[in-house]
Amino acid sequence: MTPEEIDKFISAQLPNQSVDPIGFKAVSSFMIHDPCGAENPSCSCMVDGECSKYYPKDFCDRTTMLQNGHVRYARPNNGRTTHKNGIDVDNRSVVPHNVDLLVKYQAHINVERVNRDGMEKYLFKYFCKGFDCAKVGLQHRKATAESSTQVVNEIRDYLECRCVTPNDAAWRLLQFDIHHTDPAVERLPCHLPFENSVVFTEDDNLQQVLQNPCNEITKLTSWLKQTRTFHHAAQFTYAEFPEHFTWHGDGKFWDSRRGSRKIGRVAHVGPNQGESYYLRMLLHIVKGAKSFSDVRTVEGHRYPTFQDACQALGLLGDDREWSFAMSDAAHWAFPYQLRELFVTLLFCNVANPLALLEEHAAAMGEDFAYHTRSVAADYTSCCIESYARSYVLTEIDMLLKNSGYNLEHFNLPQSSIGSASIIGNRLLIEEQAYDMDRISTEAAEQLGQLNPNQKCVYDGIINSINNCIGQIFFVYSYGGTGKTFLWNTLLNSLRAQGKIALLDV
User: What sign for the dihedral angle of Cα 209, 214, 219, 222?
Assistant: First the structure.
């Protein structure tokens, strides 16, 4: 959006009271930041003597787009003021808004131009913050002679109380829907024969729980039964089944779907769970299975394990299932969790660990790349990838050593970074972040331009470094004799050879 388009919808200034008195009243009532700072140091927005919301803003004659993607809204110094808590405020204290929405709904409505990073932070903040709660502790009165024998259970008396607002209470009392999902998702359990979960209370008789035939019925076993009973059910996989059939939890059976739309999602199974993981893979492919043994039957041949059936179908030959597992987890897992998952996969007979590493190294090193960009923003993306890969190898090696293994055991290369301490080290990152092709070309050109005296000094220093002699050189000459040029040639040569030259700091 251009600044002109933004101004059509968003305003951060008081309307002209003589032209739009209704809009002026709405903005003055709902969209003025409480006076803070020296005039009101006790305001709730004050943190360490400053406004945490950065009000009052600076005057700005027109709307401009900043380099970071944010917008600086127009706040002209046009003399328009209003009163808030007995204090005169101007356009610098106006919260961005849309005047039409304020007039229509008569409420505080903050309207901003969408910034991608800010939008994600805002949405996840409110999705994950949970309910407003208060922690309450019930204190007993001082024990008397009659109550001295009572035992006080502090854990039982501790309460976590949820705050329910009037509109929330009314919504629930009227039994309105709290949320809606379209299409609805049917969660499908995945389990091996006789290994399904059974829910029971502490008062239930365990023998009765074991003998209850209903506890053996699950969505998965009912799907197998349905394919035996109805011919048309055999054309769908387990994951496709909820699109055409409805699960009735009270009677534990599938019935033909009527009306509403729903999709199925097989529950996640970790690759370290063995046969359950391979069963889940087959449930996305196999149709018409009437028993668990049918699930592991391929072209008329019944394989002894689900893993063998996956192998016969070509699902395991090229590590596709491990790549799918990493790609699936990358949508929700943090980088350190991806590295832990990768280490887990290494113990699951991965055919080509190096190829799997190269494919997902970027996702496993996102945290390193983020911290590196915050330290030094001028290095090349090629260097980021190289350092991130080395960092990932270092972290994976540490995880493997906790289990008694190392990178070499799985034919993985060693990291070029000794430890994770490179994160936050601006000098080290910047010194290693040069364009090596350009540096090599410049070094070769500069080396040919050295005069005999400069070349003598250059050879001496390079010889001392390459042979680890550790000599100290002091070059003394008049200004204009090329000492700076000699020094730059030395640095470029060292960098081109892959040696870290921090002496120029």
Answer: positive
CA dihedral angle for residue 444, residue 448, residue 454, residue 457, rounded to 10 degrees: 50
* pTM of structure: 0.41
Tell me how far apart the alpha carbons of residues 84 and 27 are, in angstroms, rounded to a whole number. 11
Give the model confidence (pLDDT) of 152-195 as tens digits. 777 877 787 887 878 888 988 999 887 777 888 999 999 999 89
Q: Which of 202, 256, 196 is nearest to 232 (CA)?
A: 256
Both tokens of 16, joined, read 């002209």
d(CA 423, CA 504): 21
| Residue 223, CA distances (Å) to 286, 294, 338 in order | 12, 13, 33
Residue 65 pairs in a beta bridge with 71
184 - beta bridge partners?
A: 262
What is the distance between the alpha carbons of residues 433 and 425, in angstroms, rounded to a whole number? 12
DSSP state of 221: H
C-alpha distance from residue 205 to each of 218, 245, 469 (Å):
21, 34, 81
Q: Is residue 457 within 8 Å of 400, Cβ to Cβ?
A: no
Distances (CA, A) of 292 to 210, 276, 316, 425: 21, 12, 20, 56
H or E element, residue 88: strand 87-89
CB 312 within 8 A of CB 261: no
Tens-digit pLDDT profile for residues 347-405: 877 777 888 999 999 899 888 887 776 655 555 566 677 778 888 898 898 898 888 88
* 484 token code pair: 């700076």
Calculate the alpha carbon distances from 382 to 349, 378, 379, 441 in Å.
31, 12, 8, 18
Cβ-count burial 467-484 (b if 16+ within 10 Å, e if not): eeeeeeeeeeeeeeeeee
Cα distance between residue 457 and residue 463, in whole Å:
10
Per-residue tokens: 278 = 């391979």
Map tokens 């204190």 to a residue. Answer: 139
In eight-state DSSP terms, residue 501 is -
Provide the residue type at 384 as one letter.
Answer: I
Domain ranges of the chain: 3-125, 184-312, 332-432, 436-496
